[in-house]
Amino acid sequence: MIDRSQVEDVISNITDPYLEQNYVEAGAVNSIEIDDQSITVKLTLPYAAEFFGGGVQQLLQSGLSSEFDEHRVEVVVDWKVEAQKTANNLPGLKGVKNIIAVASGKGGVGKSTTSANLALALKHEGARVGLLDADIYGPSQGLMLGVADGVRPEVQDEKFFLPIEAHGLQVMSMAFLVTENTPMVWRGPMVSGALQQLLTQTLWDDLDYLVIDLPPGTGDIQLTLSQKVPVTAAVIVTTPQDLALLDAKKGIEMFRKVNVPVLGVIENMSTHICTKCGHEEPIFGEGGGDRIAKEFGTSLIGELPLSLSIREKADAGSPHVADDPESPIAMMYIDIARRAMARLAQQNQAQEEMPIIQMSDD
Ligand SMILES: Nc1ncnc2c1ncn2[C@@H]1O[C@H](COP(=O)(O)OP(=O)(O)OP(=O)(O)O)[C@@H](O)[C@H]1O
């Protein structure tokens, strides 16, 4: 009779590319049932994996079937996103399991485009996702997600906003509340107050992830927001130029200072792909994102090319992942989303593994 440890041995030879752990050490094995004729393994991945889960199932199925060829092997893979601890143990937000803040050291690096595509990529894998445009100085998510001009969120009980649905995301933006005729002059404290109101007075409906597109920069506003908003973790968007990298470093340092875990760095406009011949060239230099990530003890979770279609699709209100989810560029965003989800899922694990420092009086 086969015993459980033999089955676990086979499973522990298979490493999840996003968790970078095998499925036994990742704690993903739910149950193993063995009898004379059959082996049934149930796995629960800690990140949304509507598509990727199928590949994992096949890998395990073939691995186990070839090892135990006298048995009928059945592998079932599902997924569940758990709420992770919030940074600084702030009370979480109703209806939201995890908040991912997307930040950049400076403006114009593609933070908003990346946030939109990242949110859509999380949704593509089956997660329930919200997107909060906190880029109060230049809110662009409404346009990018094709929300028609003049659309306003419904108000419930004279107190709560219902987020606007766009491409399957629950979206909220200050741009939905003001008109071109009522421009706002924001001062620091007003920004964080308004943003907190947007966050807490929106009725988010059972979200696995809320992506927050933060205002660019690493000044007081961003610092206050990172301390007051119950974020789970942050990602930093940068471009490969030296100056942008320098600012990205400041971003990482800022989150460190306020104890917000950084899931990693996304390098945008990494290379240029020629629309005529398809040749790919690193016009802004190579490997910068990777270097700063390593220098600051985090990692590069993805690179995106400078691509005309990324800009065109975003400008047209239908970002790449929504418009062409099977394309190589959409796959890059989806890959980044999976890596971010996997890192996030490992937050509590990492915290649990941290040594507890005992203080004594003597
Ligand atoms: N990978 C890319 N390839 C081509 N164009 C891109 C890419 N990423 C973003 N863009 C374009 O670059 C411009 C700036 O992008 P975006 O608004 O997302 O930047 P941002 O960092 O959010 O800017 P800000 O901080 O000023 O709000 C947009 O026109 C967008 O379509």
Q: Provide the CATH architecture of the largest domain.
A: 3-Layer(aba) Sandwich
Under CATH, the homologous superfamily of the largest domain reads: P-loop containing nucleotide triphosphate hydrolases
Structural class: alpha/beta
Quote the CATH topology of the largest domain.
Rossmann fold
In total, the number of strands is 17
Q: What coarse outline follows from CA principal-axis ratios? A: globular
What percentage of residues falls in helices of 4 or more residues? 25-40%
Order of helices and strands: HEEEEHEEHEHEEEEHEHEHEEEHEHHHH
CATH class type of the largest domain:
Alpha Beta
Main β-sheet, in a few words?
8 strands, mixed
Q: Count the domains.
A: 2
What small molecules are bound in this structure? adenosine-5'-triphosphate
Instruction: Report the sheet-strand fraction.
Output: 15-25%
pLDDT < 50 runs, ≥5 residues? 354-362
* Overall pLDDT level: 88
Total DSSP helices: 12
